[in-house]
Specification:
single chain, Rossmann fold, 204 residues, seven-stranded mixed beta sheet
Length: 204
């Protein structure tokens, strides 16, 4: 039986579309069981367009703590028998409880070469350009209790051209993300990822 995955999204879900396309083209052998959003966003529309189950779980101000919210989220994921949680522009930080419950089963993609330019406080691409970097890229990693600090699964690079803008660089990195994310998910599904300390080893 194929690995069941859930995609958690807060934004447009560009990488979600790449995952859906790879599954439909038989390039990725997993079952996208559910798409969960923390607000109304275009990622939900993508799920709707492809007949994929979707849920919006809103944060209840004055009621939810981070862990209470995460426990509600976990109940949905467990009901669907999810084996891997894939983050696509998910704009919420997890509680330690959630991270430990799904340790090494939460995969995230970040639009820089970590550990450089972590976080989501402002445009990563703007920071990269201001710093004068010659190359950048994306990093796929497992989620730990820090911010973009988990073990790195895969990285890819793009060249920063003279006259590069935030928009042109974002497009380059997104195109790279869309190629790499399905590959990393398939490696997990094939049980080819082994974590040794901070290193993720790809098994033959």
């Amino acid at each position: 039986m194929p690995l069941r995955i859930a995609v958690l999204a807060s934004t447009r879900g560009t990488d979600l579309q790449a995952i859906i396309d790879a599954i439909e083209q038989k390039k990725l052998d997993v079952e996208l069981r559910i798409v969960v959003a923390n607000k109304e966003c275009y990622a939900v529309e993508r799920a709707r367009n492809h007949g994929i189950k979707k849920r919006i779980i809103l944060y209840k101000k004055g009621v939810d703590t981070r862990e209470i919210y995460d426990r509600r989220l976990a109940q949905v994921l467990d009901e669907e028998g999810v084996g891997l949680i894939v983050l696509v522009g998910w704009m919420r930080l997890f509680s330690p409880w959630f991270v430990q419950k799904y340790l090494n089963r939460i995969m995230n993609i970040h639009p820089s070469l970590l550990p450089s330019f972590p976080g989501m406080d402002r445009s990563v691409h703007e920071e990269v350009l201001e710093y004068g970097c010659k190359v950048t890229g994306c990093t796929i990693h497992f989620v730990d209790e820090g911010t973009d600090t988990g073990p790195i699964i895969m990285q890819g690079t793009v060249i920063i051209d003279d006259g590069e803008t935030v928009d042109t660089l974002k497009k380059k990195v997104q195109d790279l993300e869309m190629r790499l994310y399905p590959k990393a998910i398939q490696l997990f599904a094939d049980r080819r990822l082994k974590i040794v300390g901070r290193k993720v080893i790809v098994m033959e």
